Amino acid sequence: MAKQLVFSEDARTRLKRGIDKVAFAVATTLGPKGRNVALDKKWGAPTITHDGVSVAKEIELEDPFENMGAQLLKEAATKTNDIAGDGTTTATVLAHTMVTEGLKNVAAGANPMLLKRGIEAAAEKASQAILDQAIDIETKEEIANVAAISAQDREIGELIAEVMDKVGKDGVITVEEGKGLGFETEYVEGMQFDRGYISPYFITNPETLEAVIEEPYILIHEKKISAAQDLVPLLEKLLNRGKRELVIIAEDVDGEALATLVLNKLRGMLNVLAVKAPGFGDRRKAMLRDIAVLTGGTVISEELGRKLENVTIEDLGRADKVVATKNDTTIVGGHGDEEAIKGRMEEIRVEIEKSTSDYDREKLQERLAKLAGGVAVIKVGAGTEVELKEKKHRVEDALSATRAAVEEGIVPGGGVALINAISSLDDVEMEYPDEQTGVKIVRTALEAPMR
Which of 52, 153, 271, 405 has the fewest Cβ atoms within 10 angstroms? Predict the structure, then answer.
């Protein structure tokens, strides 16, 4: 397909038209008095939203150059959403004002590169001024207020405050669609991972189809266990001590080894449970180390020169209870050393800070929450599909806003914090007049949300 080319003022004008269209559509959702926007779908019911980035993502313009401008402004909203999870409308309004003022000055003959330099210097100064205004929030009531303002719903605010209070700041809270009409919350006690029992013969409760073992020893093995003779020495050591409860976490247990465990279970010799290890590759190794730290055990790995036949009872972890279903396993009350658990959590926090991948960061945060024992699910219910999606979206936005507030504090809303930051730009000294114009552009942009 042949490429279309436009230059200079014509190019800027057409890009600006696309930017304007996105900005005007998104700006209607600004603040607590912002309007809702209905988004048409090719299939299914329309979506009602109050979220700037959701509106921006739906906009595709017919003119390719206008569409290019629209995509550029979308990027500002999307990036803000990725980092903070909310505040996308404000980011769009600020970006739009800077583009509008910048293009005016370029048309009047200003040097675009010098304008950019001035804008960047002023934006950095204003960002620091906003951070300096931040007030830490700690109490449950303050958290409820932040969430309620974001969601425009007191019930959602109090629900999020309650959940965050229970799971702690390192906890993971997921939002799902529920079956009822209201909100439901589920808390996962202990460390849970998404792998279940290897054989239904391990089930102890036929009604719930669960395998529950109280006060078990826990063998954590990195590889597959197939040979019975590898397991027999450990089983004998346990029986000699009068211990019958054993949980095996391994890549897989099959063949003679599985037959031996099932036979001993059915005969009542051992109360045993074998579950598959979570994750894959390096992530599996890391998660097994987490389980080892939590339970006070050791990961049996040939890489570390450890063989299954040489395992001692001291290498096994301990827990108050292990519950396994077909799809997941929960370890409750691990007997690991408190200091070792804190050290492991600190290691994961450092990894989170260094990680450049959103996916890796999310998985690390999940591991941190599991070690801290803080995992919760909020189930959102509603009368219709449209209402359900809109409500779920508000809960997700409120959750993101609240997390950001707990992490970095809060500032006055309604554009007041941005107005207060304007005075900090008085200290920005630039060498060239066009750079100083860039600073003035940021000054104008900071006033835009208030208007």
Answer: 153
- Supply angle C-alpha 327, 322, 287, rounded to 5: 70
Q: Please indicate, yes or no, whether residues 312 and 294 belong to a single structural domain of this protein.
A: yes
Q: What is the pTM of this model?
A: 0.71
- Amino acid in position 218: I
In a domain, 331, yes or no: yes
The whole-number pLDDT of residue 36 equals 86
Same domain? For 121 and 17 the reply is yes
Q: For residue 355, is it within any domain? A: no
**Per-residue pLDDT, 93:** 93
CATH number of the CATH domain containing 55 = 1.10.560.10
Q: Which amino acid is at 284?
A: R
Q: 274 lies in which domain range? A: 192-336
Asked if residue 387 and residue 295 are part of one domain, the reply reads: no
Three-state DSSP class for residue 186: strand
Residues contacting 192, CB < 8 A, separation 6+: 328, 329, 330, 331, 370, 375
Answer yes or no: do 172 and 275 share one domain: no
State the pLDDT confidence band at 369, using cuts at 50, 70 and 90: confident
Of 224, 221, 207, the C-alpha closest to 325 is: 207
Contact 287, 206 (CB under 8 A): no
Q: What's the pLDDT at 128?
A: 94
Average pLDDT, the chain: 89
Residues 205 and 177 reside in one and the same domain: no
| Domain containing residue 276: CATH number | 3.50.7.10
Domain assignment present for 290: yes
How far is residue 58 from each of residues 38, 91, 96, measured CA to CA in Å? 11, 17, 18
pLDDT tens sequence across 202-212: 999 888 889 99
pLDDT per residue as tens digits for the range 135-159: 998 889 999 999 998 888 999 999 9
Rounded to the nearest 10 degrees, how much is the dihedral formed by the CA atoms of 232, 233, 239, 244?
A: -60
- What is the Cα 322 distance to its own chain's centre? 27
Q: What is the mean pLDDT of residues 169-189?
A: 85
Number of domains observed in the structure of the chain: 3
- The answer for residues whose C-beta is within 8 angstroms of residue 276's C-beta and 6 or more apart is 195, 196, 198, 249, 250, 251, 252
CATH of the domain at 149: 3.30.260.10
Q: Could you give the C-alpha distances from 222 to 251, 260, 302, 403, in angstroms and in order?
A: 6, 20, 8, 35
What are the tens digits of pLDDT across the range 2-59? 888 888 888 899 999 999 999 999 999 888 778 888 888 888 788 888 888 889 889 9
Indicate whether 22 belongs to any domain.
yes
